[in-house]
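Researcher: First entry.
Model:
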Amino acid sequence: MREQIHGTTMPVLSVHLDPGESVVAEAGEFSWMTDSIQMSTQVPAGTGGVGGRGLMGALKRVVGGPSPLMSTYTAQGCPGTITFAAKVPGSILPVEVGPGAEYLVHRHGFLAGTPGIEISAGF
């Protein structure tokens, strides 16, 4: 996986995936992708999905602002690229998240991450 951030005022994040690699984002957040990218959408664990906290977990995410659905984008058969573009002027910053690390990000502040990242609402 290789990522590139292009632009300044209205930046764009391009993620280049090798076959079998994936990236996750809130449903509907991608801007464009190549033909080899396969998309699947699901309710993540902990928000009402399989193994999750049921309806209340999903309700917390809806009330908290972010979409309760997450999409996984996977390169199938050959390398591919998926791109996320800013909707308002600002910056896109890479943040390394290690085991046990937590970050509080403002509403719509999360753009994309690797599979296994857990997103939840905070009040």
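Researcher: Second entry.
Model:
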Amino acid sequence: MSFELLDEHEQGEVVRKWLRENALSMLVGVIVGLVLIFGWQQWQAHRANRAAEAAVQFQAMADAAAANQVEDVQKIAATLREEAPNGVYAVLAAFQQADIASAKGDLVAAGEALEWASSRAGVPAMKALAALRLARVRLAEGDADGAIALLDGIKGDAFAGLAGEVRGDALVRLGRADAARDAYQGALAHLQPQAPGRAVVQMKLDELPAAPDATPESGSETEKLGS
């Protein structure tokens, strides 16, 4: 079978016919592409504006906290959590709310704020910090097992020293002195010599009952000789 090549005129006619038949779909494709590009640019600009607004609000919240204006802190934190729930400033605002609630002894409110922070935190370190603080709240509520479960879920060693201390506290509450000793020793291994909380951890370790001496397997040598 043989194929004849089209001459230039015939090729032009074929191209013009194809353009006539497909002009509408090409135009629609171009318009859709332009709309998508414009929409993406608008969305990026919107996100940038929201982030800038959140930063301003967070600074206002920090200023209010420094001035001990608790009501203003709560209002700004609530606004951040409502308007920018997936941003880092909203998570930090929830941390601030948890601190205020803990200072008032409202462990339920503190726990709710930290649970919200944990669910929204996109940065692993912030998620770990939320879990660590929530573990402290659970321990204060008397739920030592719940505190340990939260600590078990923390990934990495970013807060290993602090987590080890809370784990030791929980194990002491459960009456597991040997395991608590290991937890405190692990915490000390991760804390720098000049770390502010190192002395406290060492004190907690020193206050544990002494580890039981190893029991002889089958009596002393003297007993063996005397028998």
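Model: Note on the second entry: Residues 144-209 form one domain.
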